Amino acid sequence: MTTTSAMRLTTAKPPHRLERLRTWMQSEGVDCTVVFGPDHVTHLTGYSRYFGGPSALVVGADGERTLVVMLDEVRIARESAAADQVVGYGQRGFGFDLAPAQKLVETVAALPAVGAARRLGFSSEVPGVEQLVAASIGAQRVAADDELRRMRLVKDEDELARILGAYECCWQGQRAVSEAASPGTQEIEIFSAAQTAAQIASGAPIEFVCDLLTGPNTAEVCCPIHVAGRRTAEPGDAVIADVVVRSNGYWGDTAETHTVGGNDEVDAIRSELLAILRGAGTRLVPGATGAEVFGEMNERIRAAFPGGEFPHHGGHGLGLGSFEDPHVIPGDDTPFESWMVVALEPGVYFPGRLGVRVENVFVVSPDGGVELREAFGAAA
């Protein structure tokens, strides 16, 4: 993965997410908070492990974090997690216990902070855990789901760095698409080239999603309408690649339109869409909404391309999820906040003939959206 430059975003940093959680705990009279599931754990400790077992985190009123992972993960968790203590559960080896959540809950319940709690903040992404907790822990549970969801919308600097790492992997995938898009190459071959390049850039297994469409298929917009197959690229074809990668726990997202040997019409459409994208980026300021940004983007696309369609969202939040709040759609009136991360992706499609789409990722700021690579001083 590319080494990133120092953060250059000048907007005042929000309180760290752990401090935001502690503030919520104090307001609710919560003695400690227990969360179960990989996204919760990644969010609050940075720990992310390929094919990891069920995990949990206990956050005390003083902010002390105790991470609970499967026994064989303890060493790597101690090396990589931002946690004050790492506790293992279960036994050495894998595949012996077909219901590990029971042992996980028992281990969490035995921790002193949980045993002494009268009011317990609680959220779980692991099926069945809520019932096990109800049977094992006597404290009154206070739902933390909404608060954690709100916290995830506003990123900290270390989260932006992780999103940037995944974003850079996406761009490595886009470079591979550009190189592989030659006459006679199948869509699935181009798709696979992008996946390989992104994974090597990550230096570890990734989660990978990709729309890869060539020629007339580009008018089909995206999966599941069209999935990369055996169609071979032809000279002059447009090639839409929407490369989405999760690396180190966080997602990056890009869309780009390439051509096979050049196409003046595609290049002209792409240039206009990039101008529309940049204009939409300037509207990513605190207090604006996705509905407002979508409305202006939609108007500009329809004015620039009579007969063209814009049948999808204009963008979305990015972070622990690849398609999260806030959304750039007519129905989302969520006000933007500084340090939110939003991917913008205008496109236009001419049924049966051609489609073009572009996408960049921005950080919301009072001066307008800052492209994520520029926020870290990297070349955009």
What do these coordinates show?
About 35% of the residues lie in helices and about 20% in strands. The chain has about 375 residues and is an alpha+beta fold. Strand 5 (about 120-125), helix 6 and strand 6 (about 140-145) form a beta-alpha-beta unit. Helix 1 packs antiparallel against helix 7 (about 145-155). The longest helix has 24 residues, at about 155-180. The protein is globular, with a radius of gyration of 23 Å. It starts with 16 loop residues before the first helix and ends in a 5-residue tail after the last helix.
Short note summarizing the structure:
This protein has helices at residues 17-28, 38-45, 74-80, 100-109, 112-115, 129-136, 145-153, 157-180, 187-202, 264-282, 290-304, 372-375, and strands spanning 32-36, 56-60, 65-70, 85-89, 119-124, 140-143, 207-214, 238-247, 250-259, 315-317, 324-327, 341-344, 347-350, 354-357, 360-363, 370-371. The chain has 380 residues and is α+β, with helices and mostly antiparallel strands.
